[in-house]
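Before the break, one more example. Copy the sequence into your notebook; we will annotate it together after we see the structure.
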Amino acid sequence: MTDEELIGRKTIDASKLPSTLFDYNEPIWWGNALLLMIETTMFGILVAVYFSVWMNLSPFPPPLVDRFPVIYNPVPDLTVPTINLIVLLVSLIPGILLDLSARKKDEAKVKIFLIITLLFNIAAIVLRFYEFDSLYFKWDDNAYGSITWMILGTHLLHLFVMCAEDVFLLSWTIAEGLDEKHALDITVTAVYWYWIVGIWVFLYGLVYLAPRFL
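Here is what the structure looks like once it is written out:
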């Protein structure tokens, strides 16, 4: 084919197409969605181990007899875990507002809501360390202690990852402003936060409520 024939062929003008799209129109959204599927599967494995331990222990949780005072029904304390659950649920409000502000590329609001969501994240991390005491058992006491610590610790790891992501996005927005690429990153990160909160609602019921009522 000659150069003249190539020039004469019809071409598509892509100059007016947007450089950034949101949600399922962008590959990064699908990458994040697939990652969350993998992480959900990982928690599914932990839940399966939890029920396996449950089926092999009677009573469940096992009595705490190697320390004083002896506790014959050591179901986890609800005070700190419930406070942390409320913190995570309330954090959805600024999280959603951050998501919407990023889509509108409202830089001022993005900075404000990034700071607020970061503070909620830090509060959840601090409370999580106190949550471990609500289990009564240490990670190496028995199988029940190991799996409950593993569930809380794995979710804590996700809180740390989210905290690091928020710090990066906030630092970039303050230093460089809000461009389309990082506005997209914020909306994808918001989906990750929704998942973190949603999976914890289920895990809270499993670890703290199920031993009381099932």
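The CA atoms of residues 89 and 198 lie 9 Å apart. The first helix runs from residue 3 to 8. Try to locate both features in your own notes.
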